[in-house]
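Structural prep section.
Before we set up the soaks we want a predicted structure of the protein with adenosine-5'-diphosphate in place, mainly to decide which crystallisation condition to try first. Input record follows.
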Amino acid sequence: MNYAEVAVNSPGSRSTFSYAIPQGLNINVGQAVLVPFGSRVIQGIVLRLSDKPSVEETKEIADIVADFPLLSPVQMRLAQWISEYYFAPPFDALSLMLPPGFRRRAITFFQLADSQANSPLTPEESQVLHIMTGRMKTSLPEMEKAIGGRKARQITDQLLDRQLITQTLELEEARIKPKTLPYIKLTADRQEIEIAKARLDKSRAYKQAELLEFLSGQTQSIAVGEIRKHIHCSPATIKALESHRLVSVERLRVRRDPLAHLGFMPTPLPVLTSSQQAAWELIRHVIVGKASPSGRPPIFLLFGVTGSGKTEIYLRALAQAIAAGKRGICLIPEIALTQQTVERFASRFPGRVAVLHSGLSPGEQFDEWQWIGEGNCDVIIGPRSALFAPLPDLGLIIIDEEHEWTYKQEDKSPRYHARDVAIKLAQLNGAVVLLGSATPDIGSFHKAQQGEYQLVELKERITPRGYSPLPEVAVVDLREELKAGNTSLFSRSLLAAMKEALAQGEQVILFLNRRGTATFVRCRSCGFVFRCPRCSVALTYHSTEKRLICHRCRYSVPVPQSCPRCSRRNLRFLGIGTQRVEEEMKHVFPEARLLRWDKDVITRRYGHEDLLRNFRDHKADVLIGTQMIAKGLDLPQVTLAGVINADTGLNSPDFRSSERTFQLLCQVAGRAGRGLKAGKVIIQTYSPDNYIIDAAARHDYLGFYHKEIDYRHRYNYPPFSQLVRLVYRHANEESCRREAERVHRLILGEKSRKDMTDFNVIGPVPAFAFRARGNYRWQLFLRGPDSTRIVSQLALPGGWTIDVDPVGIV
Ligand code: ADP
Ligand code: ZN
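Run finished without errors. Recording the tokens verbatim:
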């Protein structure tokens, strides 16, 4: 094979390129290489080898980055699937699986050659040679700085032609490096040690003698830091022993263990309840018997109410897979929840759990990646990206809270959904997939109804009191409160319930789907609303900073005294946020210890962990938070959960807003009463008759599902059609709209030519955040069985982004 098809690290590059393989370079599929690209040299990954190039003229591969393939054949196939299904540039899909810190630029260096000039030099050539004189090597950027970009390239090319200089390529220095620590090892034998000790005692070098004594009790080399925990020893002491050739010091690679700060308590294996046992039997058979004969991966949907013991089933499934010589990945939706899950998993599989997430330092990520690749762990826990770690022998993928939207990568290419990627990955490995949720994704539940997934149910909640019913939910009509003259955030029944819970020393959580103190600020005289000049979304008032902040781009301004449009001093703060709730709580319950949990509070690295631990240790009585508190937390001392306003999201135009609101309400309701005492939930709303609120109050997933799936069917929304979102961004508003309209016409033309009656285009409309970071954005939605096929025929120019299976439409 003389040619390689390479995916290159050049942003947005949708095609791959053919390169010739130079003599003597051993190139394999999955290998990282450096290739010339335009005037630069960039990184690439070899996709295929062939005898013939795909174009007539090819350049040669410049070099290899590592002499072994970085990606396995399965990873290569997964990347190909992601690239094709999500219309993502091949390198974007591949780079998901590259080790942290892989992306580096190649830098060209010049060296003076031995040869002499056989014809006169131009003044510029002399200048360049002069710059290089006396130096080992000079980089192209250095040269560009000295004589200007274009000239540097041109003159060095001439000198290369004349063989007066040579050039080499080097990758820029790695930002992430393995961490090493000094280790000491005894090199002397018993006899030599005894002689040395006697000598040291005599010369009163007691420290050296002590260290020598300590080391002779060790079976292998030991870290200097570790020795210092036992005896006092200075660098000089070690040096002295080293110089007498009694010990040797070497730097060994160590793992930056992100779990080192946690302590694990081994816990006894609980006896499964009868429902867990029944569920487990179904799953166990398949894990033992492995993949189904159809070649499709066995996929379970574990539909278990909040607190029904799903996690225990995950742990059993992992243990079973490990017993069969396999390993597993467990995806969780949010970094904030890692600690609780990690603790449970790590105490079940001590020393065999790796974690991966963006909250780790780059060094830790790098080390976990290596550690996983070397086969040192059995279980990986992490968010969606954990799917791409180089885990050998993959046998099981678990997706906890599978309905969560965080499993979809929306903000950058490839815009993949972890559930679908996991299923593909499992298929490539012959692995089992276990999806778990108390409120499954409507699409997932539909698949289970169709027999595509196997439905396994856990209907009872387990608490220290044994099986116990889900908490009782009361719906409070806020209109009645207003009529009764209560304008506070808290209804009379929520107030009474909080009073009681706090008096009993129990914990309360208050949920609000919104940050800040007010959603927006409006002028009561002229109706002016403060908006972000860059994104056009309404700005949110934050009382602590006394500023208006854009939740999209962080733009902020101090709140003015008067309206910028009509100059009157009649500004009104509308809506409520977590800060408002906190302020009102302080006012009503001055003694209660409050914790607020939202993105504004949590910015530090272990912020989430600290906050959760404090709350679980009962260092606070009330936790006020946004979505984050709705995500699978196990807080046994919480007996009351209050939803301040359930209506956020009810009136959204998004076809998935009902599903989203239902899931949030059920999840919040599921936080109460998980401990020794029964729980209570109060949902405040202006629309108590809404079926979503009604179903959530009765914990009635099935009732909600049937209504929702009818609606999806009637309006041809997923899962009955496929959605693709096309977004165009442009700095000029007019050009942006026109391009969106042009593509719209193209699609409509195709629709009528092919007579596709069940295919629709929604839009073009300005995107929800119409202006984002200075660009205007217009969008189109394709809805129908052929959406992706139509997109593949469009040949969209730059500026368009394609999102296949978007999780929402606003
Ligand atoms: P879920 O993941 O469904 O929300 P969990 O697995 O967190 O539920 O279980 C809820 C609680 O019940 C946890 O405190 C867990 O330790 C406990 N639990 C689960 N299974 C058992 C069991 N078989 N026996 C005793 N306690 C259990
Ligand atoms: Zn903004």
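Observations: The two ends are 49 Å apart (CA to CA).
Flagged for discussion at group meeting.
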